[in-house]
Design goal:
By secondary structure, this protein is an alpha/beta fold. It has helices at about 10-15, 15-25, 60-70, 95-110, 130-140, 160-165, 175-195, 220-225, 270-275; strands spanning about 1-5, 25-30, 40, 50-55, 75-80, 115-120, 125, 150-155, 170-175, 195-200, 210-215, 245-250.
Length: about 300
């Protein structure tokens, strides 16, 4: 089993001590977001083939990566680096800091251990297509040799995402398919010049753009390369167009306090901050289950 930690929240940035404690315990508890039922996830070495870590700030987790490796688990870091303005990403590190963190991953575990995510591509008055071309080029140049893949996707206009953007006073637009393909083709060309392939996350209608291929964010082949041994995992995407290998995600929605305005995993930042404040690094659950009758 591959364990995802986590596309629902930023475990490396905020919950690293909890994660290591759960490795020592050999399991964690999670809540199924659809049924509300509690599930026990086995985190022992025989049960886990490897981890995929998703983050916008690897700094607090760099030491923990050594602990993960010492316990015999291979891993891949999916790291978002966008350079977006603070109005959209309120608390992520400067991209130069992030590049240094990813270079450290490359130095210790090789370029296959890290994937750069340029995600989401969001078009606003402050970030038009020309801004994305220039910013992407600067980031790609800085990340040359650090990774061989950059995964991109355009902002998905979920209802809560649109609501949060409107509440923040940020005007944005969802460009048409041809405009998206043209931008993706330009980004793919820039990436190729810096030794990277550009893959697209779960947006199959755009994957025919020149130089672009479909992403496998939970990638058993990449994890196998890091591990130095074959890992078998069937394809089991979690939405149309997703080519990820089967995995178990141990995160929890509405628990990331980063405050990125576009976030699809947080409906209300204040609620996420309250849930984060209740976090117990020694607990079995990432966030304690709410007391009946009280808001989460």
């Amino acid at each position: 089993m591959i364990v995802s930690a986590s596309y629902k929240t930023d475990i490396p940035a905020f919950y690293g001590r909890w994660f290591l404690n759960r490795l020592d315990a050999g399991f964690c508890m999670m809540i199924n977001p659809y049924s509300g039922k509690s599930l026990r996830v086995d985190l022992t070495r025989p049960a886990v083939d490897g981890f995929v870590f998703w983050t916008k700030n690897l700094g607090p987790f760099l030491g923990a990566l050594d602990g993960v490796a010492e316990r015999g688990f291979p891993f891949v870091v999916q790291h978002s680096v966008t350079g977006l303005p603070g109005a959209l990403e309120r608390s992520v590190p400067d991209w130069r800091v992030t590049v240094a963190h990813l270079a450290g991953v490359r130095d210790r575990w090789g370029p296959r251990a890290a994937v750069w995510r340029y995600d989401p591509i969001i078009l606003t008055d402050a970030t038009p297509a020309s801004w994305h071309r220039a910013t992407f080029a600067a980031l790609a140049q800085a990340l040359r040799g650090v990774t061989d893949e950059v995964t991109a996707s355009f902002l998905q206009p979920y209802r809560k995402t649109a609501r949060n953007l409107a509440a923040a006073g940020i005007g944005w637009r969802d460009p048409g398919a041809e405009e998206k393909r043209a931008l993706l083709a330009d980004l793919a060309e820039i990436a190729a010049l810096e030794g990277m392939s550009l893959t697209l996350c779960a947006q199959p209608e755009l994957a025919d753009a020149p130089g672009v291929s479909a992403a496998r964010c939970v990638d058993a082949e990449r994890l196998s390369d890091v591990a130095g041994r074959p890992l078998a995992a069937r394809e089991k995407g979690n939405r149309p167009g997703c080519l990820c290998a089967e995995s178990r995600d141990i995160g929890d929605y509405d628990s990331c306090p980063h405050g990125c305005v576009y976030c699809y995993a947080v409906a209300d930042r204040a609620a996420a901050q309250r849930r984060f404040a209740r976090h117990d690094p020694a607990g079995e659950f990432l966030v304690p289950r709410p007391v009946t009758g009280r808001p989460s």
